[in-house]
Design brief:
EC 2.1.1.133; Methyltransferase, Cobalt-precorrin-4 Transmethylase, Domain 2; 5-stranded mixed β-sheet; binds S-adenosyl-L-homocysteine; 2 domains; 25% helix; alpha/beta; 7 helices
């Protein structure tokens, strides 16, 4: 049995209760060492075999899983944040399907949620944006042309950009090409929920400069949109006294 587990964004107490339980029951843990907080490994039971997948290929990860399966052992594959985002889990699941090895997927708190919390931010403010676009700049992994930053930026929705800290000049340029102004509010959140978390509120035009001045080169998310400044928005209808909902009558 293999359990894919979301480790959460960094703070060891932001793994789910279920994820922590699975970690404590695992015979084998393969963790994404580049971003998973090693403190989470203290939940492992004695004698658990622990592997850091940062130094392994997909084939090597699968070898460890297959060997554990042969011995009837339980493996936790620990991914940063939530496994469904940039987690490369599909290729592992497909290989397990091929061998008939069963698995589950335990969700985690994604870093984009950790980053919002770090800024006390609501991504979906009424009359500002009701959508969150999660994307990245093309790097070694290409991005389909239809999802190019400028075309996504044309929606003027809240955007959260992963995996792009080294490309901020280009990111600004593409955001502006898509219709954001240079003075649109933006933020950089470095290591959200870790002890050394840092947040910087800036603008679309000053993303690269802000990162440079603060030596931020990786493990950061960029958040774009007027929700960052929350200078204007309408209050919710859900809590509006004049509004009847399924659970509450409007007040006269
Ligand atoms: N599955 C993960 C994302 C993995 S991709 C999730 O749900 O969060 C790795 C990228 O995620 C990093 O390059 C960075 O952009 C972002 N990231 C991961 N943890 C982060 C954190 N604590 N703070 C800011 N960004 C983080």
């Amino acid at each position: 049995m293999v359990n894919f587990v979301g480790a959460g964004p960094g703070a060891p107490d932001l793994i789910t209760v279920r994820g922590q339980k699975l970690l404590s029951e695992a015979d084998v843990i393969i963790y994404a060492g580049s971003l998973v907080n090693p403190q989470l490994l203290s939940y492992a039971k004695e004698g658990c075999s622990i592997y850091n997948s940062a130094r392994m290929t997909l084939e090597e990860v699968l070898e460890v899983i297959y060997a554990a399966e042969e011995k009837g052992l339980m493996t936790v594959r620990l991914h940063t944040g939530d496994p469904s985002l940039y987690g490369a889990i599909r290729e592992q699941m497909d290989a397990l399907d091929e061998k008939g090895i069963p698995y589950t997927d335990c969700p985690g708190v994604s870093s984009f949620c950790g980053a919002a919390a770090a800024l006390n931010l609501e991504y979906t403010l009424p009359d500002v944006s009701q959508s969150v676009i999660i994307t990245r700049m093309a790097g070694r992994t290409p991005v389909p042309e239809k999802e190019e930053i400028a075309s996504l930026a044309s929606h003027q929705a809240t955007m959260v950009v992963f995996l792009s800290t080294g490309m901020l000049e280009k990111l600004s340029e593409r955001l502006i090409a898509g219709g954001y102004t240079a003075d649109t509010p933006a933020a950089i959140v470095y290591k959200a929920t870790w002890e050394d978390e840092k947040t910087f509120v800036c603008t679309v035009g000053t993303l690269a400069e802000t990162a440079r001045e603060n030596n931020i080169t990786k493990t950061a998310l960029m958040i774009i949109g007027d929700v960052v400044s929350h200078s204007h928005y309408n209050r919710s209808e859900l809590y509006n006294p004049a509004f009847t909902t399924e659970f509450r009558e409007a007040k006269k």
